[in-house]
Amino acid sequence: MQHSKTLTSLAAVAALALGLTACGSGSSQGSGSSPSASQSSSSSPSASASTSGDVDETKPHHHAPIEGASATIGAAEKGGKTYVLGGLKNEGDKPITVESASSDYASTVELHKTVNGAMSVDEKGWTIKPGETFTLSHDGYHIAVKGLKADLKKGDKIVVNLKTSAGPAHLELTVGEAASGGHHH
Hints:
mainly beta, 41% strand
């Protein structure tokens, strides 16, 4: 009987640990492995915000109500660059400013804007009004993902993290067709 109670207790501890780990799975730092995009059978590019990430378990979870409405990222080779295009929707009741972006899959992730054919880093960020979708396109605003740490192939899934005025947002993106840049860096 004691053996059964021990196994039940171990199972409960393991389940709790998995739950906490899943909530903090947005970062692979310290794991000793380099990120690689995961394979998926899905062929349609899509994105959704996730509640995983670096979270202090002693505080209530607070995540920005941002959805990757139709957002996708283009396929590209290791060492190369690609772009997040589509839309970011503010599903909250207050304006949200997207301040910066990052990903474990790339050495650099930047908010860009293109004006009159000239691309530049947008250091002011992007403010999205409640209920509105902010459009990401090659010839306007977009998220540039540079220095890829692994090949991104159509159907792979990766996470792009957004730092916003309302807290973190984690976009789970499905890799679509190869990105074709409409501007020069």
